[in-house]
Amino acid sequence: QIRYSIPEELTRGAFVGNIAKDLGTDVAKLAAANLQVLSDSDSQYFSVNVNTGVIMVSERIDREQLCGQNPRCFLHLKLAIENPVEFYRIEVEILDINDNPPEFPSDEVSLRIYELASLGARFPIQPAQDPDVGTNTLQTYHLSANENFNLNVKARTDGGKFPELVLERALDRELRAFHHLVLTAEDGGSPPQSSKTHITIQVLDANDNHPVFDRPSYGARLVENSPLGTLVVKLNATDVDEGPNGDIRYSLSSHNSAALRQIFAIDEQTGEIRVQGNLDFEEATVYEIEVEAKDMGSPTMEEHCSVVVEITDVNDNAPEVILTSFSSSLSEDALPGTVVAVIHVRDRDSGEQGKVQCHVPPDLPFQLRKDYEHQYSLLTSARLDREHVAYYNVTISASDLGNPPLSHHTILSIALADVNDNAPQFEQASYEVMVAENNPVGSVLVTVSAADPDSEQNSRLSYSILRAAGTDPGLDPTRYLSIHLTSGQVSAKLPFDYEQTTYLQFHVEVSDGGSPALRNRTLVHVFIVDQNDNAPQVHFPRAGEESATQFRISPSTAPPALITKVMAIDADSGLNAWLSYHLVEATDPGLFSVALRSGEIRITRALQETDASAHELLVVVRDAGEPPLSTAVTLVVLVEEKGPEALQGSEARATDGGGLPTITLYLIVSLVLISTV
Length: 677
What we know:
mainly beta; Immunoglobulin-like; 6 domains; four-stranded mixed β-sheet; rod-shaped; membrane
């Protein structure tokens, strides 16, 4: 805390102090720290030149307007700097200058005094008012020279001075009916200032006894906010005169201010003073009421007394919470101890009732730190997670120490700004896909899906395909597949062929849009399902040539001799490759048969002389697919005397003109031997 003192009424731009010098810091550092001036009042009376560190007057300062009759007048400032956040309290005392002379309410004062007025009688004169304070305010009065009156200055408890004329020598109306006096009010400034009022005293005859109060002053104590009509005090004055001259009426003196007259009222008959307005301890702690008692004589005589009313404070003002600095957005990675807001609290009550305590709910990750009297900082007390709680409503409760206490609640809404602290997560650790071969190009095989609890750019996901570790380097998944960048749909770029590839494995990587980006992977297994897209292929006898394959048998061949065997394979698998052999056409359907699964062609009965010498057989090889595919082969069996005996296991020879390949001959020989065994 730094304190300066300046006189009031300085010109704009006047020097107040050098904050950089008084804080012992470099001016450049203050400028870089974003120095700010925060005032407790509504007007900005001061400004700071951040280039020089000098505090200057920016508006006219009138001490009387700011602080009235308070003996000391202060303006409070707070300097705030950033990186790190620090606050400095500056107290500027405004010193009074003698810029106001004392002034009487009127230049002329008229008094009517009975000639029988007692020596020592006092006659109050309306005092002069000087808004200055200290030595610059009203200090003394001077009365012009005269034979009958002296001047007495009555000092009040609040420091006010009231002049009274004191009768020192008896009046004689017949000798002198009017007295003209001059009363001068002078302050203690240098040089002093003064003003005058002219007093005209008319000496009256008759009623020679004035009312007398039973005590010179009265005292009372009331609590603020007392109900209207509350009795303050009952005055008692007596007059020894008789008749109208002894009949007393009470009234509030004209010396009382208009504001005081609105608060208190007096019954002119009983002398009871009662409350008729609002009593507020925060506006005034003591009221001094001037009361006069007049008799009904002609002319009337009066007496004055004062009633001092002390006001006791009650807890009728709730604390106030003022936001000095506040940021409604906070990064979720803010460290514990980060300053979120700076608040100023105040309570207009006094004593314990004006002391304020602040707190926040204990279940929130925030805490209050008391910087100094009436100022708190709201700090984070734990790590924050936007994905867990994205928004906080922090209730700051301010309570005074009154009985019962009064409180005020202020709600601060704080939104957490997202940081990229969560990697995307797939819905499944791995995916398995069954895809039929010969699939259409562009068909969607599978959709992988991931989620990221972050928000906005940090939750925008993109997908890509990567080769899985340990797979064939030549089997690049991007050759067959593509993935949509944002939807995660995996599509086929080429149709699959089960006969070439039965299984494909690859990784899908997802990355978010944060900086740096966070990534995750999932494994996708693609199983190719076989389709019946390959017809059986006849390896023996050769199919698709210009002439049918011929076989020779002897007329004596007996059943069930093996003539030959049709050998076929199917590139498909499963039922699609399960072959069956069927004799569709034959010269003599009852002479030969074909084994359903092995494809062996056998003679079913003995040859007769009436049988043809050449038999043409049409054999169809069919798979078990849906729909089934088939291949046909034509064989010609020649019956000749010199033909081999198939029943004895001799090789059936084909005469297809071109001869059989060596491997085919080996296969035929092997099949014949196996069948014979």
